[in-house]
Amino acid sequence: MTGLTTKQLEHYRSKGYVSPVSAFSSNEAKEIRDEIEKIEKNWPGSLEGINRNYVHLVSPVLNKICFNKNILDAVESVIGKNILICGTTLFIKDPNEKGFVSFHQDAKYIGLEPYNWVTVWVAVTDANEDNGCMRMVPGSHKDNLKYHKQKFDDNNLLTRGQTIENVSLDNTDPIILKAGEVSLHHPTIVHGSGLNLSNDRRIGFVIQSYIGTNVNQVLGKMYVQKARGEDEYRFHQYIERPLKLMGKNEIFLQKKANDELSKIFYSGSKKLGNF
């Protein structure tokens, strides 16, 4: 793969997202799932709450995803050749549980400016309408940031339960992905996802986000890794790649990064959520 096609890039620019993009084989996706479930089994609770963030710092397997050539080629088509990785999040919906993601815009609380960045959603398992795939409001990235009501709902998988109300599902596109495929979406597109009504887990590994080196963090400090190109701006502090699964140093660096991320996500809020 050498990046997005002209048609895919036009779709991204007009609709605010592109999907599906092939990144991994189904066998590779299975290896990623096995890694996640190995961590869950051997280190209970270590992927829950705020620790679902920066998971690429504690697992060489998950870190390697961020450097996948197919993904980086697609990202380069959108934001250019100088690319930093500034965060990852696991969104896991177990079958018949109540977890959902309210409609929101990523740019609302993340503090990354200018908007030369893109979020990549990696399907570790199939994502479809039965198990609560993402839904995008096409073209909404062309609007300004909208009002988000902070609900702090225990079943909402977002930090503040931030919600753009009265979004009609009739006006959304389902992002249906096979395991190993990814989607890319714009910082200001309105999106969310519903319940998992299937009999299997729905696992998404979200690289949030890939940023151009010209993008600053205006709400705090972020730790980054260089994925491609050169960083002439040096806005952010670099953090090393993991060498060992759930090693002592890896866990320390993840906590360090998450402490700063929490300050960003809850900037200006008098209340903290579950993540």
**Number of DSSP-assigned strands:** 16
The main β sheet shows up as: 8 strands, mixed
Helix percent reads 10-25%
Q: Mean pLDDT, rounded to whole units?
A: 97
- CATH topology type: Jelly Rolls
Give the CATH level 1 class: Mainly Beta
Radius of gyration: 17 Å
- As for the number of domains, it is 1
Along the chain, the helix and strand elements come as HEHHHEEEHEEEEEEEEEEEEH
Shape summary: globular
User: Number of helix segments?
Assistant: 6
Based on the coordinates given, report the CATH architecture.
Answer: Sandwich
Q: What is the assigned CATH homologous superfamily?
A: q2cbj1_9rhob like domain
Unreliable residue runs: none
- End-to-end distance: 35 Å
Query: Which structural class do the helices and strands define?
Result: alpha+beta
Beta-strand content bin: 15-25%
Would you kindly provide a brief summary of this structure?
This protein is α+β, with helices and mostly antiparallel strands and 275 residues long. The protein contains six helices and 16 strands.
What does this protein structure show overall?
With 275 residues, the protein is of the alpha+beta class. It has a single domain (6-265), classed as Sandwich (Jelly Rolls). Helices cover 24% and strands 24% of the residues. It contains 6 helices and 16 strands. The strands form 4 sheets. Strands 1, 2, 3, 6, 11, 13, 15 and 16 form an 8-stranded mixed sheet that branches. Strands 4-12-7-10 form a 4-stranded antiparallel sheet, with no helix packed on it. Strands 5-14 form a two-stranded antiparallel ribbon. The longest helix is centred in the C-terminal third of the chain and has 18 residues, at 248-265.
